[in-house]
Amino acid sequence: MSISLESFDNQQAAAVVSNDVAARVRAAREAVGYSIEDLAVTCGLANVEISEIESGLDKTPAKLKRIASALQLPLSDFLTVEI
């Protein structure tokens, strides 16, 4: 048996994708050795905003773009496309 997003309702699917984005942001930050504070200073967001993104509570595209730029990554590294 396999699990795919098709087996979830829209709210559950959004949570899965959001958590994946959150995990990718955290992994990218940790890969360059940044603390949340370091990333916040670099991209101009508040510590709490970074924490909310990494916990899956926020996935504002403009904030993700600022984080990607600060980490010198394409925004697409954080996004997933489920088919």
Automatic annotation (TrEMBL):
Top-level division of the source organism's lineage: Bacteria
A single MF term (Gene Ontology): DNA binding
UniProt cross-references to PROSITE patterns, sorted A to Z: HTH_CROC1 (PS50943)
Protein name, as recorded: Helix-turn-helix transcriptional regulator
InterPro entries for this protein: Cro/C1-type_HTH (IPR001387), Lambda_DNA-bd_dom_sf (IPR010982)
CDD domains, A to Z: HTH_XRE
Pfam families membership: HTH_3 (PF01381)
Cell division as UniProt keyword: no
Organism classification: Bacteria, Pseudomonadati, Pseudomonadota, Alphaproteobacteria, Hyphomicrobiales
Alphabetized UniProt keyword annotations: Plasmid
